[in-house]
Structures are given as structure tokens and as C-alpha cells.
Structure prediction request, 147 residues.
Amino acid sequence: MTYFGDDAGAVMNPQWGADNKIYFNAAGLHHPESIYTIDTTGTKLTSILPGVDFLALSPDGKKILYDLSYGLFTCHADGTNIKQIFRYDNNTPNTLLGASWSADSSEIFASYTDYPNGLFGIYRMNSDGTGVQVQILPGFYEYPSVH
Prediction:
């Protein structure tokens, strides 16, 4: 579907969108790390958000959830209307190991580790970032998927 393999690159976390596009993280020698879209025929490659880690596309295909070193963000599927929904604590080396939307896009489930404070598990928050720190499953997990 893409030529990132020929560009000494990689494609990660592909997800089908409700708009019949495929969303994914990718990077290559001639293409910076970015969230990209491509249509189902493998054409119309478009960079939406450079330099970010793509986590999940909302089930309705309207929002993207992504991670930067200082927080968790959402935006519209076209990369507009960026909102930081959760700020990481700069005094604690927090690690987000993936996140997923609930089926109705009202909540986000995140795999979170905070080694100094002994916090490990899947946490739930509202899609606007409120209500965080509600642990629903203890332990160490990567890339939760909610259906």
C-alpha cells in the first residue's frame, strides 16, 4: 500500500477510518515521522501531523488521539482543532504505552506506567481528559484495545 519499506522506513499502527482512508504512523529516509493517511487504492498519501505518535482513530472516524513527550492530545481527523487533554507530570518519568477510544468515543483507555510511584495498569478518562486516574485493570500492558 505504501513505499515506506522502499524508503528504509516503517509503517506502524494502521487503522481503517470511517472515511475509507487508512491512518498510520510512518517514517522513512525521505519522509519525516508523521501521522499519514492513504486511500484504499494506495494513492493520495497525505501527512496530517508530523512528529507525533499516533495512538488511535475514534470509532466515528472524526478524531485522532496522539502522544507527545509532554502530553496526550486529540484533534480532528484532518489535523485541525488540536487539544491537549492530559499533561504529563514533568517531575515523574511517566510512560504512556498506548491508548484507545471507547466504542462511543466518550472515553479513552490508556496503558500507563509510573515506576517511581508504582502505578501500572489500564486507566480510564473522559475524552476531554477529565476523570483520569480511574484504574480499571492493574498490571503492565501495552496498546489496549477497547471494543
